[in-house]
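Hey forum,

I'm writing up a methods section and want to include a predicted complex as supplementary material. The small molecule is thiamine diphosphate. I've pasted the protein sequence and the SMILES. Can someone with a working setup run it? I'll credit the forum in the acknowledgements.
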Amino acid sequence: MNRILDTISSPSDLKSLNDRELKALAGEIREKIISTTSKTGGHVASSLGAVEIILAVHSLIDSPTDRFVFDVGHQAYAHKIITGRLDAFDTLRTYGGISGFPKPAESPHDVHPSGHASDSLSIALGLAKARELRNSDEKIVALIGDASLSGGMAFEALNTIGQLQLPIVIILNDNEMSISRNVGALVRHLGAVRSSARYRQARDSSQEKLEESGSIGKAFVAFGRSAKDSIKQFFVPESMLFEQLGILCTPPIDGHDITALKDILRTALDADGPVLMHVVTKKGAGYAPAEDDPVRFHGVGPFNESTGASIKKSASPTYTDIFGKALVREARVDEHIVAITAGMRTGTGVEEFGREFPDRLIDVGIAEENAVGMAAGLALGGLKPVVAVYSTFLQRAFDQMVVDCALSNSNVVFAIDRAGLVGNDGPTHHGVFDMAYCRMIPNMRVLAPSDEEELVHALHTALRIGGPVAVRYPRGCGAGMAAPQSGSMLPEGVSRTLREGSDVALLGFGDRVGAALVAADLLEQRGIDARVVDMRWVKPLDAEAIAEAAQTRLILTIENGVIAGGAGEAVLMTCAQQGFTTPVVTLGIPDEFVAHGSTDKLLNDLGLDGVGICSAVIEALGA
Ligand SMILES: Cc1ncc(C[n+]2csc(CCOP(=O)(O)OP(=O)(O)O)c2C)c(N)n1
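Reply by user p_vandermeer:
Happy to help. Structure tokens for the complex are below, copy them as they are.
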């Protein structure tokens, strides 16, 4: 059967399609998304929910002259497919293939490299101001989800958008979901708007027209025409929140009805100020397993296309699971422990904690600054907050870490998940900066457990040692060892030597300790005797262990993080300060953004696996 999809090589091809054809195209795109992601994994539910919105926008604007900005960008698969990447779509998220997020290097239709939530409105606003200063007239559309709208950056942008009154179309994709169910007062407000009388009216009248014309969209056409003389009348003050900020807001629109979307969007694109289109969609739309379980299908690994069942690779618990269980056990004996998540209760493993201690888990939504600021307040209030957060998203809250937590030496634990390279999500999600940005903060201690057991001890220690403490651990599973049922105190700034050796010292941090052990075996085969040290602490460093390492011919530091400002640099500085002349090689992430691909492949490329470490030693020794 001929697919319409095969005739679309650029978004301009959509212009010749009627709404019935666009609808059929939406179905074909959904099939493509499902069949591809069943093999590659990906952000299935969000992308399925946004297909009609993307088609409606691209059928009315002229991208790339007009600018379509995606928030997070995890919902942009349909956009990728219709902007010349249909054939490449099978390589989604794979090494050397196309990225799971908008990426300007991949296509001129991708406006900015997105991946972190809540930035789209600021980007759109900047583009609108640039347009004004350049005297041009391109259209600017931003697509943002209801959860991402709750992020501080988006709120700040709304403030300036209301002030500057530059024409921008904001499409609010309201599906009531973040990764889990959305939380917060804004979501309550949107819920109230959805169920308001006017929405019911619009729906009821749509229903009538539907009966008359067979198209729910026709009702919106009529709705638009009756207010033709005034755009402002068309955008009724449905949400006082946006109206009072100076942003015209539509009543809720069915986000799966292409005709309705296009009719209102056409008017919105002609407005002479900012307009917010409140669009209601179903996350996972068109694929029953994703509609039924949008949380799992938010970001899912490979799955069986017909049943939706995940094709699991490993039965071992992940570091996240181990952290989550250890936290629950700690909280059973210490009622001061509270946990905070910024919209990531499943991802960070605090779901079980929330079930057992509902009052002691706070989900602030996508608001990392608020999470860390609130943690400082909880600590001032005598509690022991644990901020469970991904390394990459904690970057948002650097200032709160410094000023609100560290300056007052508050007892805040940062449980930093997804530390190091994370694989297929790529550069926006790699957690490679945390050792550098934590290390530089006074009062902050930093632990990098090397395996499951060490993670349990590190958390136990962090909860007792006092002051701000970061515990960083990687994505996925460790060696598969059984984690202990209780943690014990790790002596501060003390490493553990895993293997004695006199030729070279391999100082490993976190998950690179395992790779150092592999390298030591390989080196042994070449007659090189390597000592392996699990440094455990990035800060304070074990100065004695470094002094011992300096007795060998070569020190190698290995970390899953940036070299600049990282743990290896700290070792190097200690050596310099102590006057050691032993050469030091620092292995880690070089001064570049690392692309997406499987973590093993990326680590191999960067020379951070056992083979790479072995080669680095041989090269440095000239052996
Ligand atoms: C700063 C930041 N924090 C957390 C995340 C993780 N994250 C990715 S998508 C998402 C939920 C987005 O929900 P919403 O904006 O409503 O879009 P939907 O997926 O429902 O379409 C979260 C929390 C992120 N990408 N960026």
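Some notes you might quote in the supplement: Residues 46, 49, 72, 74-75, 116-117, 145-148, 173, 175, 177-179, 283, 342-344, 366, 368, 393, 396 surround thiamine diphosphate (CB under 6 Å). Residues 205-230 have pLDDT under 50 and may be disordered.
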